[in-house]
Amino acid sequence: MTVITVRSYHLDGYGHVNNARYLEFLEEARWAFFGQHDLLPKLGNILLVVSRIDIRYLRAATEHQVLHIRTQIPNMAEKAILLRQTITRGDTGKTVAEADVTLKPVNPQTGRTTALPDELIRTLNLLGESL
């Protein structure tokens, strides 16, 4: 889980977190998730790129609130990983936003989608079972 405190520069003119900032929060949580589970070395020489994000905003987050972001793996295929990310308020546990994020493995030399490394697939399968 990743914890973020809402700062004044995250806010829009209405005094709540700007929708674009949620993308940054979710990205930070994805990097933390991959780091916490030691997944980055298992990528080998491939890149994981976001190919789709579906965000559902459920309630506003405001300055000084502490947000918890949980990342899970509900589905995975040879050439795609689906992450489900949930942002909740730390004080109430109420959901602020939910996102489904599709990551595609890309070969950096060709720029084309490629298969996920076997070691990464094994580890992600184990993680998905334990979450």
UniProtKB/TrEMBL annotation:
- Cross-referenced SUPFAM superfamilies: Thioesterase/thiol ester dehydrase-isomerase
Keyword match Ribonucleoprotein: no
The molecular function terms in GO held by this entry are:
fatty acyl-CoA hydrolase activity
Q: What EC number(s) is this enzyme filed under?
A: 3.1.2.-
Q: Which UniProt keywords apply?
A: Hydrolase
Does the keyword Iron belong to this entry? no
Q: Cross-referenced Gene3D superfamilies, in alphabetical order?
A: Hotdog Thioesterase (3.10.129.10)
Superkingdom classification of source: Bacteria
Please give the InterPro entries that the UniProt record associates with this protein: 4-hydroxybenzoyl-CoA_TE (IPR050563), HotDog_dom_sf (IPR029069)
Q: What class of enzyme is it?
A: hydrolase
Which PANTHER family does the record match to this protein?
Answer: 4-HYDROXYBENZOYL-COA THIOESTERASE FAMILY MEMBER, LONG-CHAIN ACYL-COA THIOESTERASE FADM
From the Swiss-Prot or TrEMBL record, give the protein name: Thioesterase family protein
Q: Which organism is it from?
A: Neisseria weaveri
**Gene, per the UniProt record:** fadM
